[in-house]
Amino acid sequence: MANLRTNNLSGEQGQNAYRGSVFFPGYVNGAASSYLSIADNDDLDMGTGDFTFEAWIRPVKQGGTNDPNYMGFFSAADYASSDGSITIQVKNDGKLRYVINAGSGDDETGSTVLWGDYHHVAIVRSSGTIKGYVNGVEEISSSYSSAVDFTHGGSTVIGELAIDNYAGDYPFCGYISNLRLVKGTAVYTTNNFTPPTSELTLIPNTVLLCCQDSDDPTQEATGKTITANGFTDLTNRTDNLIKNGRFTTSATENWTLSGGTAALGTGQSSTFGDGNHLVLTASSSYAYLKQSFTTVIGRTYRTDAQSNGGDASFISTSTSESDYVISDIRGGKTFIATQTTYHLILRASTGGGNFDTVSVHEQENSVQPKVIPPFGVDAGNTFGGPIQQSSEGYMYFPTGRTEERGRGRGLMIGNLLSGTVYNTVSFVNIQSMGNAIDFGDTSTVVRNNGALASSTRALSGGGATPSTINTIEFFTIATASNATDFGDLTAVKSSPYPTGNQTRGIWAGAYNYPAGVYTIDFVTIASQGNASDFGDRLNSIHSSNRSQCNSTTRGLITGGYNPSPGAMVNIIEKLEIATTGDTTDFGDMTSPRNNLGALSSNTRGIIYGGSGQSPTPNVNIIDFVTIATTGDATDFGDLIGNSSSFANTCMSNNIRGLSAGGDTQPGNYYVNTIQHITIATTGDAQDFGDMLRAGAYFSSTSDSHGGL
């Protein structure tokens, strides 16, 4: 039976992931920004009868000057002596609060701290008593003795405390999902009830049901018109968050200086930048310029700086450079905010350094993540295997093999762009097209490295800094972080060909200009330590391939350059991963080439592009082989032009393959393109997204290649 996609069964994101949520940014640049409103409507007058308000909320504490006493997330409606109104809030201590006003008022507070996780909240009036519940537990019972008539004038507002002269003062920051208002019915009447574990629906007397669509905050199930106030501003806020990043007025205005001096355009390279550049010089050791800036959690930001010195620039979670998120912002880096305040740090030594055009911008068309309440666990996009069905005719949710889930994270490690080597590490989610996201950094700048992985750990071995190195570093793929030392290769190696499986990582040969390296190294991926000898390459050729191609049992080494007679080769070699020994012949590619990429599912190996024999330096060919069966490669399709054909790198899960970057020699035109194919189906590559920056000669791997 064909695979079933989970979104055909239960929602866009997988099993029990019901539609998502609406993100409210709270204060942005010191001002309240976005909220939802519904015009005055008799349906929303609760009168003196029973009612139920409920929602899943995930509030975010903004901190600093953007930390109001209260964050309103539901208000009904104008505050006046003759009107009855109720506002539902999160206090600055993270606890649920509601306020009732009708000439005089009642203010009640719960006990659970709500920060950081989804909680189900419900405010219920039953037989004249108003109670507040958090995750089904009664935390509030109103002491207000009057029978409040909630027949009010004015709008109903979601995401802000929009009551009279308080409007705009207390916006909500965080996520609201599945907000439902039921008029005339107390849905929950007992303590310790179980909150709903499925998408809220239209039950009798429902008068408002919204915040179920991450992409459309105005979606509402009862036919009411919801106006999104300020939400259009969310997609195009591109003002520089760094003040005086061009250093046009003063070297230190808006910056904090320590450990040295800062001057405008003096001392070094007076033609640098626009003439207003900063010269930062340390009195001893290092000098620092620091500036804090405010972000919105979940949004994407791009940071950059110009510098003609060898000095560092950081994005840090504190004023310490050791707490960095990005260790070198030059050339442009992106990051997703996980807190509301970050620090940009410029550093220079006693030799001094120059900086200009220092910036942090919110990425245009930055999209809020689809954050969902805890209705269930995303079990993946696709499932294989038989579908179970009971005798009653009810269909069970399909189960399947892990390799059929279509999931996977691909890492791109290192980079070379126009002669500059970077320590960049970025990632993509292979099953979801889109741009790369910052992951962390290697310990030093690196190019021509070889990356491989198990399902949990990625290793980068060898490369050039530009000096050739023998270093092996590793990353935990699921957790964005910087590299950790693993051990050493048996010798320094540039462009080692990586392959391996869940247990063993192998680097087969290398190209230490101007000579080849034919020894093969291996490690046990789960155990840190130095590499051991595996065997030797079959052929005395220079091989430059920075991506892995393997099944769970067999690795393939493709292409290369033979210095005698000075020609590219079309050789494909194989090795058995579990058994040490030399490589043996597998077959031939459709054309000779070097500097190519490769990827695989558990059954099929794909060979991408490369540098061909002069006068055709760039090759856009895609070949494929069946890994279990020796033989020559077959044409698969073509890359998008020649733009990613030279020194590109590849990654894959068991379904989709990606090719990233490239150098269109001659001319050293570097590209940032990521392309994709469906491994099981021949055809030309298609656009996937963009890298953090253009580049080539780096290495890629994933947690789900080759059947992992």
Features:
mainly beta, Jelly Rolls, 708 residues, seven-stranded antiparallel beta sheet, 1 helix, single chain, disordered N terminus, Neuraminidase
Give me a quick take on this structure.
The protein contains 1 helix and 51 strands. It has 708 residues and is an all-beta fold. A hairpin with a 3-residue loop joins strand 43 and strand 44.
Topology:
Layout: E1 4-5, H1 7-10, E2 22-25, E3 27-28, E4 31-32, E5 35-38, E6 51-59, E7 70-76, E8 85-91, E9 96-102, E10 104-109, E11 119-126, E12 129-134, E13 137-141, E14 156-158, E15 173-183, E16 206-210, E17 227-229, E18 256-258, E19 260-264, E20 278-282, E21 286-294, E22 300-307, E23 313-316, E24 324-326, E25 333-336, E26 341-349, E27 353-362, E28 382-383, E29 409-417, E30 420-429, E31 437-441, E32 450-453, E33 457-461, E34 471-476, E35 484-488, E36 497-500, E37 504-512, E38 515-524, E39 532-536, E40 554-562, E41 567-576, E42 584-588, E43 597-600, E44 604-608, E45 621-626, E46 634-638, E47 649-652, E48 656-660, E49 673-678, E50 686-690, E51 699-702
Antiparallel strand pairs: 1-28, 2-15, 3-4, 5-14, 5-17, 6-11, 6-15, 7-8, 7-14, 8-9, 9-10, 11-12, 12-13, 15-16, 18-21, 19-20, 20-27, 21-26, 22-25, 22-27, 23-24, 23-26, 29-30, 29-51, 30-31, 32-33, 33-34, 34-35, 36-37, 37-38, 38-39, 40-41, 41-42, 43-44, 44-45, 45-46, 47-48, 48-49, 49-50
